[in-house]
Amino acid sequence: MKLIAAVDENWGIGYKGKLLARISEDQKNFKATTMGHVVVLGRKTLEEFPHSKPLTGRTNIILSRNKAYMIEGATVVHSIEELMELLQDYDTDDIFIIGGQTVYDELIPYCDKAYITKIYKSYEADAFIENLDAENSWEIENQGEYRFSNDLKYSFNTYINKEPLKFKKR
Questions:
Q1: Considering the domain boundaries, does residue 169 fall inside one?
Q2: Which of 52, 127, 146, 149 fits 14 for a cystine, CB–CB 3.0-4.6 Å?
Q3: pLDDT tens-digit profile of 95-109?
Q4: Phi and psi torsions of 52, nearest 5°
Q5: Helix or strand or coil: residue 137?
Q6: How many angstroms separate the CA atoms of 31 and 118, rounded?
Q7: How many domains, in total, are found in the chain?
Q8: How far is CA 54 from CA 14, 35, 44, 72, 169, in A?
């Protein structure tokens, strides 16, 4: 399983339900990386998408505690246990965790690779993910070259988890 996220210098990912920054090249990279794959996300993250609709060209799995929540074009699960059961139907290399914080918190330990757009700026944030630079089991595989968009400096980095947790099989 993989994760993909854009983080600031403090590993912040959002503020009041919104991304910290919108970088066109990052959005293109996200689309290219996840297209044709399974994306796992929380309901709140889905509601930030255009028209609150699932991503086209991908299998969308939404995690929501609301048992009545349904959305056309996606599979909705209501617990981590239900999600893990469903994910066994897919190749783990085909699964991307795309947010938000609660979903990342639950699933990062199961991920073997992370695609991180590192934004070299600090924002006011109220949503964060684990700082992979500070975790012993994670190491940087590829430090991308610095890129610039308007006043923002960023890079596309890849991390490897040397000790991912394994799914419990049925």
A1: no
A2: 127
A3: 999 999 999 999 999
A4: 55, 40
A5: coil
A6: 17
A7: 1
A8: 19, 12, 12, 8, 28
